[in-house]
Amino acid sequence: MKNNFKITKGLDIPITGIASLEVVSAGESEIWSVNPNDYHGVIPRLLVRVGDLVKAGTPVYSDKNRPEVLFVSPISGVVTNIVRGEKRKLLNILIKADAQTEYVPFPIRNPLEMSGDEVMKTLLESGLWPTLRQRPYDTIADPHKTARDIFVTGFDSSPLAPNYDFILKGQGADFQKGLDALTRLNEGKVFLGLSVNSHAPELNQALRVEICRFDGPHPAGLVGIQINQIKPVNKGEVVYTANALDVLAIGRFFNQGKTDRTRLVAITGPMVRKPCYVRCKPGIPMKTLLEGNVYKEASLRYVSGNALTGKQTETDGYLSANAHQVTVLKEGEGIHEMLGWALPRLNLFSFSRTYFTKLVRRFQPEKAYEPDTRLLGGERALIMSGEYEKVFPMDILPEHLTRACISGNIERQEELGIYEVAPEDFALCEYVCTSKVQVQQAVRDALEKLKAENGD
Amino acid sequence: MRPTFSEGGKLSKLHSVFEGFEAFLFVPDTTSHSGVHIHDSIDSKRTMSWVILAMVPALLFGMYNTGYQHFLAIGGLVDKGFWEIFGWGALAVLPYIVVSYGVGLGIEFISAQIKKEEIQEGFLVTGLLIPLILPIGVPLWMVAVATAFSVVFVKEIFGGTGYNIFNVALMTRAFLFFAYPAKMSGTSVWVTTRGSFGFGAVLPVVDGFSGATPLGQAASAVGDSVHFTNIVGQPLTWWDMFLGFEPGSIGETSTLAILIGAIFLIVTGIASWKIITAVFAGGIGSILLFNALAVNIYMAVPFWEQICMGGFAFGAVFMATDPVTASRTETGKWIYGILIGVLAMIIRVLNPAYPEGMMLAILLMNIFAKLIDYYVVQGNIDKRLKRSAAAAKKGGNHE
Fold this sequence. Notes:
The complex is a heterodimer.
Chain A: E1 4-6, E2 23-25, E3 31-34, E4 44-46, E5 53-54, E6 59-63, E7 70-72, E8 77-84, E9 90-97, H1 116-126, E10 133-135, E11 139-140, E12 150-153, H2 164-167, H3 172-183, E13 190-195, H4 201-204, E14 210-215, H5 223-230, E15 239-243, H6 244-256, E16 263-268, E17 276-280, H7 286-289, E18 300-304, E19 311-313, E20 325-330, E21 337-338, H8 357-363, H9 398-407, H10 410-416, H11 427-432, H12 439-454
Chain B: H1 2-5, H2 15-25, E1 26-27, H3 44-74, H4 82-115, H5 122-132, H6 140-155, H7 168-179, H8 181-184, H9 214-220, H10 238-243, H11 255-267, H12 273-293, H13 303-306, H14 312-319, H15 330-350, H16 358-398
Helix pairs in contact in B: 2-4, 3-4, 3-5, 3-11, 4-5, 4-6, 5-7, 6-7, 7-16, 11-14, 12-15, 15-16
């Protein structure tokens, strides 16, 4: 079986503000939040009320459609407020933290000695099950569906992504325990996708998994691309996907008997003064996380995640439960470039050869750019052809699949491979699109509709 | 200024005009609200303006050639300096550009206002393509009517930019060709003997004047081989045809200028090199076949002369590569291009009714472009189904 893959299509977007390899501890914060909106496709069913005492690991809400999937509190304290939005949509569950975090105790067990069902039950109770996602539909893994295989990505190639080698340093035991837990979940294999540039022994010497190496630009680190290269998903099959950093949390749970969501979050972006790694838990207020570390001259956009697939967070918001990175960008409103589309614009990055980007980077290979959030154009119908194909290294026709998603043609979507993809796979297509089509949203809407149609 | 033009303001009916000018002068500062937070700096205005840049060599040479052919026809070419010739030609071509853009953009603004959408840049390119594919002798009012027809019936009713099936500029020419054939072909339309800017009396021509283009000459030639001549009877060399000193549509004559445009478009990645290469390959391949079979002297014309004649090169570089109307899959582009080249040569050489085959070949292939894509996509679908079936079978064997 082929284990080395060269990805030729794709694009690495050079942005300033990559996190330096230092760790800083986050400041103290009184109020934390659990956000049901962090997870897509979940209708939350509240399990606590205002005034309830919770520990780290107490279930706070569950999925209405799958009540066994629990979402737990990252810290211990008392529930102070349930924030609802329009139509009583659950926005935040605010918790006032204790001085010392208390954890819900779980037995310390070795997953290799447990059956698959037991491992699954334990993961569901621990609140760590939501870190496993599935294809098709790119939702939280369905515990009732047996996965053919499990794919773990061991690196992130997105712009300014955290360095997994650095984060996993010294955590080999926990990481391996997490992988062992995954191996118990089904009859198939666990594949670990690694970059050829990764040398960390914690990743490269992982046991009981099939290691596959990827060489090439982004999106080589996306698990969807890796699946398509290694062993594509066929109609009717289900695969689970995970991220090495979440597998680390799973392993730590089995080794320590508690749901400790402490993680290193990379603070990145052109508007960050000192990009670095912060040790914190999810649910921390963004204000605390980014205290004094951002340039305040312009209005800013906080993104939980990377600049391509991350979720916009309010400045008084909270870190998403599944975020390992924060990107701080400048909002582009109010920037008026006169006749900008006709000028050379040497300070802007472009994949297109109508700008001098390639020429400039030949003389300055290390040049990085400071993008803002503007569309840099108007939304149009699809005009140029062949754009998406240049940054989409799967054997799926991205433009035709996008068209099928926009027009709602379900049969066509199925024929063209909608079961294999997630919106994040199309992020680069959306980035390079001349017509500024909202590709990721179109794919997400199509996947939701398909899931409802199929009754999954 | 904005509130005056917005809904409820005094000039709200001209909102799309205001937005059009604002979008033309400034890069919009709208920020992204879904999906990616950052975007590439490429946009459709940049793409369209680059295509216009690529057409500029053909346009400039076309202006010069119009003047050149005019003075050659009425005599006195040797006395005229470069700027006089160019200036005369430019003033002769300018009304066509003004009419084309004026009518086309006017209709586009009205459509955008009706649809309450932003005006789109598609017509920036079409507006310049239309004059370049017309003979200089066409009356201006015909250009206006044809442009209006094309923009409304070929583009807007399908949904505007990005939704048209047929190439809009080529449909303008086709409309003129079929509605007013006497003004679009023959031997009197390719060189103008009027005064410049559409004014002035028709001037007398020198002895031996014949306005026939090389295409016309080849189609009507008798004898043992085709002898190309220019409009005053002197022999026309291949070099003349390549550089473009021959009668023809305004922008089509100079293969060199078109080549410069082609290199520009390919290097910047705006036009598909696959389509351009495929059109030339298909065309040259057919010519070689005709040379081998040569039943008449037209079929014996060698390929290096054939590709410099008529609108073949211009169509290959600027018309066939229109991404909206061409095939969109990479494999499809090859098939689409080759078929255009082959059909253009077949219509040109074998069909006595149409001297120029390129326009009809491209319009015909516009119909089939999506059919070609359909089969390429079907191939991708079949591959996926086969893989799925094989996996299901393997899974079944393990039961």
